[in-house]
Design brief:
Blueprint (H helix, E strand, L loop, with lengths): L13 E7 L2 E7 L2 E6 L2 E8 L3 H9 L1 E7 L5 H8 L14 E3 L5 E3 L3 E14 L3 E13 L8 H6 L17
Antiparallel strand pairs: 1-2, 1-5, 3-4, 4-9, 5-8, 6-7, 8-9
Length: 169
């Protein structure tokens, strides 16, 4: 079976963030999708080993910052290949605290969505969090970064905890 064919599914590149007891964390994710319109609900997939998972599970809120094609690899690496257990990812990043209390990344973001968790589904290594949208706005005009763009133009790699990880890719 050629698991790399899964990379051909359409994905975006996002920073998913949350907060816990005054601490902030965020991570790169490629699985965010709208599931209903009234009320507006979205779903995200987060690895259970990630600190962001712990923060979302604790606070029941998350934000999605939609990355533009202008986001450099170093910025993506900060949120995608580093752990919030080891560094403060927000130390040198422009952000604001949203209405949910979750941080919203402003650097390289086209816009954001904030959601309150209304359900979750354990899918093995990951949890699918379903959130009702409580706020959303545009930050700037631009082109959203896709997972394909990240791999083929930015020449980025897939971290081992990503849902789309295929050994060494």
């Amino acid at each position: 079976m050629d698991r790399k064919i899964l990379h051909k599914l359409s994905y975006g590149m996002y920073v998913i963030s949350s907060a816990k007891e005054g601490k902030l964390d965020g991570q790169i994710a490629n699985t965010v999708f709208q599931i209903t319109s009234k009320p507006a609900k979205i779903a995200i997939s987060i690895n259970k080993e990630n600190l962001t998972y712990e923060y979302i599970k604790y606070s029941n809120v998350f934000s999605v910052s939609i990355l533009s094609t202008e986001a450099p690899f170093k910025f993506i690496g900060l949120f995608g290949f580093r752990s919030g257990r080891d560094i403060n990812k927000f130390e040198n990043v422009k952000y604001k605290i949203g209405v949910t209390g979750a941080p919203i990344v402003l650097d390289y973001s086209l816009g954001y969505i904030e959601a309150k968790v209304v359900d979750s589904v354990d899918v093995g290594t990951h949890v699918l969090f379903i959130g009702e949208v409580v706020d959303a706005d545009s930050i700037q005009e631009g082109t959203p970064m896709t997972y394909d763009y990240y791999h083929n133009v930015v020449k980025g790699k897939t971290p081992p905890k990503a849902a789309t990880y295929v050994g060494g890719s």
